[in-house]
From TrEMBL:
It comes from Amycolatopsis pretoriensis. CDD domains: PLPDE_III_YBL036c_like (cd00635). Its cofactor is pyridoxal 5'-phosphate. This is Pyridoxal phosphate homeostasis protein. Pyridoxal 5'-phosphate (PLP)-binding protein, which is involved in PLP homeostasis. Keywords: Pyridoxal phosphate. One of its GO terms (molecular function) is pyridoxal phosphate binding. The modification N6-(pyridoxal phosphate)lysine is found at K41. PROSITE patterns: UPF0001 (PS01211). Belongs to the pyridoxal phosphate-binding protein YggS/PROSC family.
Length: 237
């Protein structure tokens, strides 16, 4: 069963890599400008382990309660929190995440900074936490994200915590809208952010259905689940 699953993942990975490479060529960009994060939500830790064997280095999860045990089981990967994050999960997330891509409020920034301080005092981690600000491209509070006109203020708060390291922006294209137009807006927001925060160069945008449009508009990180792992399976225990 494991051999069959590994072969399936290998074939899917080859297809995704071909799509990324083609999109980079079409945009006049180098393939190594775009990082692939495999989104393993609802799939077992064994899939993450197989992806690691296939050369995948970065994986993402949407829920802390699912991610924490997986990260403990497959510690050799870089784990990213990409889903909406409740403040009361900050301490747990800081224990396993290399990066949080869904920071979208001052209160969450404060909770994460406090969690990093506590983890440092407990000698659990000795590095700041890398974070991306999730930008809202549709102003829908149910989907999370910081309004574009508030990005600058939140970025300033993040950089002054000392415990958080601002790496850039993340966004999800609005439902039912042209993803290219949304990613163009995100690109402009990223340019504005980098005027004051030149090290915040990461732009996490693009998923299974719209990664090409995201890469065209400057995405440096695509988050791919379905095209890589297949339809959503049962959550791992």
């Amino acid at each position: 069963m494991t051999a069959g699953r590994k072969a399936e993942l290998a074939a899917n990975l080859a297809e995704v890599e071909a799509r990324i490479a083609a999109a980079c060529r079409a945009a006049g960009r180098a393939r190594d400008e775009v990082k692939l994060i495999a989104i393993t939500k609802t799939f077992p830790a064994s899939d993450a382990a197989l992806l690691a064997e296939l050369g995948v280095t970065d994986v993402g999860e949407n829920r802390d309660q699912e991610a924490a045990p997986k990260a403990a089981e497959v510690p050799g990967l870089r784990w990213h929190m990409v889903g909406r994050l409740q403040r009361n999960k900050a301490r747990s997330v800081v224990g396993w995440a290399h990066e949080v891509q869904s920071l979208d409020s001052a209160r969450l920034a404060d909770a994460l900074a406090k969690a990093v301080r506590a983890a440092r005092d407990a000698q659990i981690r000795d590095e700041p936490l890398d974070v991306l600000i999730q930008a809202s491209l549709d102003d829908d509070p149910e989907r999370g994200g910081c309004p574009l006109d508030e990005l600058g203020a939140l970025a300033e708060l993040v950089t002054h915590t000392g415990e958080l390291r601002l790496r850039g922006l993340m966004a999800v294209a609005p439902l039912g809208a042209d993803p290219a137009a949304a990613f163009e807006r995100l690109a402009r927001a990223g340019e504005g952010l980098r005027k004051d925060h030149p090290n915040a160069a990461e732009v996490s945008a693009g998923m299974s259905h719209d990664l090409e449009q995201a890469i065209t508009h400057g995405s440096t990180c695509v988050r791919v689940g379905t095209a890589l792992l297949g339809g959503r399976g049962l959550a791992s225990p």
